[in-house]
Amino acid sequence: MFNRGNIINVRTVGHHTIDSVLRLGYATRFFALTLLHSGTSFRRLHLIIRELYFTGVLSMIIILVSGLFVGMVLGFQGYQTLKTYGSESALGVLVALSLVRELGPVVSALLFASRAGSAMTAEIGLMKTTEQLSAMEMMAVDPIARVVAPRFWAGVISMPLLAAMFSAMGVYGGYLIGVVLIGVDEGSFWSQMQSAVDFREDIVNGVIKSIVFGIAVTWIALFEGYDAPPTAEGVSGATTRTVVTSSLAILGLDFILTAFMFRGI
Amino acid sequence: MATDNLVEISGVGYAYDRRHPVLTGIDMAIPRGKVVAIMGISGSGKTTLLRLIGGALQPTQGYVKVDGQLTHELDREGLYRMRRRMGLLFQFGALFTDLSVFDNVAFQMREHTDLPEAMIHDMVMMKLEAVGLRGAHRLMPSELSGGMARRVALARAIALDPMLIMYDEPFTGLDPISLGVIRNLVRKLNDALGSTSIVVTHDVQEALDIVDYVYYLSEGVMVAHGTPAQMRASQEPLVHQFVWGEADGPVAFQYPSRAYSEELELV
Q1: Structurally, how many domains does chain A consist of?
Q2: Segments forming the whole domain that contains residue A123
Q3: CA distances (Å), origin A188, targets A84, A99, A100, A126, A195
């Protein structure tokens, strides 16, 4: 039972566990430092505005186009299912609730992780590789305050806005397919949607989700970049890890948040 | 109280892990106003020594004193205050790639001072004029040649007229013209700004022409020091091999291996 192979396996598992715990601790400390240095970013708002452009505005195209297509697919699929029960007029409700509660925050966060998160990791990883972060340190400028914190807040601010755009575009896509193409009654499409979607239960919960996803994705992306080994392989590995880890985090957090938000139902 | 030496290093040892010390028992004194070179082959601990002086690393033994202050006793604020009076030129410039040449040089002025933009403009232009790149102030780092990038980085390093300028391998990978320009700038800027300079390099002849004093490191130990003339005349085998670039000597040409005849299975 205690042969050499088994001992080596146990040791490897032990090493991995210790490494993971250490890294989690380092990431938590990094997060705390980012929050601590956020005051500097808000005093110099132009730094956040610049990052808002790169993370938010430049992600708009992919978010808007994806939202439109997801909404159009929901229009088709929803109509097919609802027709079976003779309740096509509830198509607006189905499209809106699916988007506002789930698809809007989740899909836009997944797209945000791939588009903006990976870019943040690669940028910071390369800044580290080319010694730009060390240069900043040597110039008595804290890279967490100057580089990390503005990007963090830009990510947290843009995420709910992008999710809202995604949902709005999706509703419009559902309208195009349901009302314009298939011919569902326009009045019932909008009025049923309006009466069924609750501001507190649906919209606010969706916004809370997207804020949480924004924090998670941006934190993971920034930490992976900051912690990337300063080599080409290191940066490429960190970029991949950002997309994989943030996608899993989004799905895991979505499950937990949904379980809490709709536990009374 | 200010002493004649801007940097004093005494009994400094540094190890990333205990079994493999990078530096052992280093003693150095860098007088104010002088240009001092730290030489040695790659991996001899030169850059680590520079990082110790800049406070990026703490010595595991001994102490580093900069302008009368022990670096390991400084808190973060104290360290940052000290670094505001230092300039470091990184090996490949380390320019901020998202900022123009002008903004790179203006970076520290904007971060650490409340000077009006008009005054920053004039100061940046003066620094760029000193390195001959005033006309390139609008360019981005990606549009610069290696030599130009190094000169911009030099202008950035002297932006706040530092008391100490440190150069990490400033001559590496430059064409002969750029190399000559950088070499002369190191000396001229030091004298014009009244600073003190430390040049970490393995480019012997370029450095010996401009420096006042040389420290020679080998495998983390200080093996020789003296004026450039003394280094050129040195009979210490390590220094002699290094200064004259001989292929074989105390630093063996061959990586440690088993006997050649054994490798080829001739015996």
Answers
A1: 1
A2: 37-261
A3: 18, 18, 19, 53, 10
CA atoms within 13 A on the CB side of B137: 18
Domain extent at residue B163: 5-263
What is the complex's ipTM, to 2 decimals? 0.82
Nearest residue to B53 via CA among B201, B227, B74:
B74
Residues B239, B227: Cα–Cα separation, whole Å: 13
**Contact by Cβ (8 Å): B196, B165:** yes
Q: Is B98 exposed, middle or buried (0-12, 13-18, 19+ CB in 10 A)?
A: middle
Q: Which residues in chain A have their CB less than 8 angstroms from residue B66's CB?
A: none
Q: How far is CA B123 from CA A11, A141, B120, B156, in A?
A: 59, 20, 5, 11
Burial B55-93 (b: 16+ CB within 10 A, else e): bbbebbebbbbbbeeebbebeeeebbebbbebbbbbbbb
More confident of the two residues A165 and B267: A165
pLDDT(B58) > 80: yes
**B60 interfacial to chain A (CB closer than 8 Å):** no
Contacts of B171 (CB under 8 A, 6+ apart): B179, B182, B183, B201, B203, B206, B207
Residue B38 β-bridge partners: B200, B215
Q: What is the pTM of this model?
A: 0.86
Quickly tell me which residue has 């004039």 as its tokens.
B122
Cβ A138–B54 below 8 Å, yes or no? yes
- What CA–CA distances, in Å, run from B52 to A16, A102, B2, B219, B249? 32, 53, 20, 16, 30
Which of A132, A136, A144, A147 to probe the B interface (max B CBs under 10 A)? A132
Interface touch A131/B92, C-beta < 8 Å: yes
Number of domains composing chain B: 1
**CATH number for B234:** 3.40.50.300
CB atoms under 10 Å from CB of B189, counted, come to: 22
Distances (CA, A) of A150 to A129, A188, A221: 20, 45, 13
Query: CA B26, CA B59: separation in Å to the nearest integer?
Result: 10
The rounded distance, in Å, linking the Cα atoms of B213 and B224 is 11
Most B CBs within 10 Å: which of A138, A146, A147, A235, as the mutation test of the B interface?
A138
Kindly state whether residue A168 falls inside one of the protein's structural domains.
yes
Q: Is B196 helix (H, G, I), strand (E, B) or coil?
A: strand
Establish if A27 belongs to a structural domain.
no
Q: Could you read off the pLDDT of A207-234 as tens digits, one per residue?
A: 999 999 999 999 999 999 999 999 999 9
> Does A2 fall in a domain?
no
B81–A132 C-beta distance less than 8 A: no
CA distance B112 to B122: 17
